[in-house]
Specification:
Blueprint lengths: L8 H14 L13 E7 L3 H16 L1 H5 L1 E7 L3 H13 L10 E4 L1 H9 L12 H5 L3 H7 L9 E2 L6 E6 H11 L9 H17 L12 E3 L2 H11 L5 E4 L2 E4 L3 H9 L2 H6 L9 H6 L5 E5 L9 E3 L4 E3 L2 E5 L9 E3 L4 E4 L4 H14 L2 H11 L11 H11 L5 H13 L4 E3 L7 H28 L4 H5 L5 H18 L3
Parallel strand pairs: 1-2, 1-3, 6-9, 13-15
Antiparallel strand pairs: 3-14, 4-14, 5-9, 5-12, 7-8, 10-11
Length: about 475
């Protein structure tokens, strides 16, 4: 995969050095006649859980049996449920289960567990050649230890895409001249959403102000982190373990202009738990979300009095006009609990097997996650695995993965480095602007119901004074969240 990757050479070379010194030539402590049992906790559900469990079973019947490893996997429900279970185990809470040998973890949680001294040093079990097979930025993300050694094993990653209800897009585009080309930038999305609101409002000339929202997005934290990165600003800069928060007013104004204002005016929307839910109910036409959400894009719109089938379009997530082509790098990896050599070695052997090209792509075909080996990130490899394994792949998932593979050449994947209070700081990004936009949109709707036009109702919320008030509140909340 010829992708430009933003990564710290210092950290990456430290990881290379660590595995070169400790990983090479390590003899297996396993005994096939006395197999070691491993417990894995994850947050997969539904088809993702079924796919993971199938691969675990395959491992146990083949490589696991040969090497003397038996893996048992358990879903803990949601990501938050899994994190709570891990914290309870580490804290020795009464009734808590013993720490698993392996568990899914995002970087912020892994950093917290690492600070407690509870994670195994994976660099002890990987040599330079093995490490080099993985996408460099995925390895860098996992090097959260003070000495730069690896703690998070990359197992499946995702980024963001845009999905569009093609069936309802086409008549709008034909009537107004709207183009998919416009949706490549955030400014273009906002302008298109305004045009869609006005077009749908015009369908009922006797009812004023009943236009429909066009667009929404999941994961507002990504909007801030990646949006600012596209504009040349790293909001969370971590150097030698020290955090600097960068909140330049001009760049944040652009984010406010292209999310808050369209939300307040009803051009954007957020109604259900996820934006794919809003497409299903006909309240949105398009959204930005994780590649793993592709499977949830609905096959039909369900209104109160009718339903109808829809087709879809997959596009890359929009970039700010004139911005650099950054996209989010996300998705939990797997970490190994610190225990003994036998269990840690066996855990790494399972994770290496799970991330082999065929196995990882098999999981990705169901989950929508990107594979983590460099060689696996191509349409050709995906097609080969589908043919060899005779897999049935949902067209939406296939189109999502191949769209990313096709665009990878000019894309830079990014995730911020871990830091103390990282989870709390991210929650500020997730909710601060979104919650205010939702509350102010409700006030605008109320004012319109009392007879004001949209422009009159929205006017108090879209002034420079309103932005400055939000900006000051946002900076204060972000500093508090990060413990500054």
């Amino acid at each position: 995969m010829k992708t430009r990757r933003r990564y710290s050479k210092k950290i990456y070379m430290a990881a290379i050095l660590a595995v070169t010194l400790t990983g090479c030539g390590k003899k297996s402590p396993l005994d096939p006649g006395n197999p070691v049992s491993l417990t894995v906790w994850h947050y997969y559900n539904g088809s993702q859980q079924a796919a993971f469990d199938t691969l675990v079973e395959d491992f146990n019947d083949t490589v696991g049996k040969e090497k003397g490893i038996y893996v048992q996997s358990y879903s803990q429900g949601s990501v938050s449920d899994l994190e709570a279970a891990v914290r309870d185990s580490i804290g020795g809470k009464v009734g808590a289960a013993a720490m698993p040998d392996i568990f899914s973890s995002y970087a912020d949680t892994a950093y917290e567990v690492e600070q407690a001294g509870a994670l195994a040093n994976l660099s002890d079990y990987l040599d330079k050649e093995e490490l080099g097979k993985y996408v460099d930025s995925y390895i860098e993300e996992g090097c959260i230890a003070v000495d730069g050694s690896l703690r998070i094993f990359p197992t499946a990653k995702s980024t963001e895409i845009m999905m569009i209800n093609r069936t309802d897009w086409e008549p709008f585009a034909e009537a107004t001249g709207a183009s998919l080309e416009d949706l490549k930038t955030m400014e273009g999305v906002a302008a298109t959403a305004k045009a869609y609101y006005e077009w749908t409002d015009g369908q009922t000339p006797d009812v004023e102000g009943d236009g429909q929202a066009f667009y929404g997005r999941d994961a507002m934290a990504n909007y801030f982190i990646i949006g600012l990165q596209q504009l040349g600003v790293e909001i969370f800069h971590v150097e030698n373990g020290q955090l600097t928060i960068n909140t330049p007013k001009e760049e944040l104004h652009r984010l406010w202009d292209n999310y808050y204002i369209p939300m307040v005016k009803g051009y954007f929307g957020a109604y259900g738990s996820f934006r794919s839910d809003d497409v299903k109910t006909g309240e949105l036409l398009a959204y930005t979300g994780s590649t793993s959400s592709a499977m949830y894009f609905p096959n039909q719109v369900e209104l109160e009095d009718k339903s109808y089938p829809i087709d879809y379009i997959v596009m890359m997530a929009p970039v700010f006009e004139g911005g650099r082509p950054y996209a989010v790098q996300q998705g939990a990896g797997m970490v190994v609990s610190k225990s003994d050599e036998k269990h840690e070695y066996a855990s790494v052997e399972f994770l290496k097997w799970f991330t082999e090209t065929e196995n990882n792509l098999q999981f990705g075909c169901v989950s929508g996650y990107l594979p983590v080996l460099k060689e696996a990130n191509s349409r050709e490899k995906l097609d080969q695995v589908i043919a060899d394994q005779q897999l049935t792949v949902a067209p939406k998932t296939y189109d999502c993965l191949t769209t990313i593979f096709q665009e990878m050449d000019g894309l830079t994947l990014y995730t911020n480095k871990s830091f103390e209070n990282g989870s709390a700081a991210r929650k500020v990004l997730e909710y601060h602007l979104a919650d205010q936009a939702a509350a102010d949109r409700a006030a605008v709707v109320s004012a319109m119901e009392q007879g004001k036009t949209l422009e009159e109702a929205a006017a108090p919320y879209v002034t420079e004074e309103a932005f400055n008030e939000w900006y000051d509140s946002f900076c204060s909340a972000l500093g508090q969240g990060a413990g500054k």
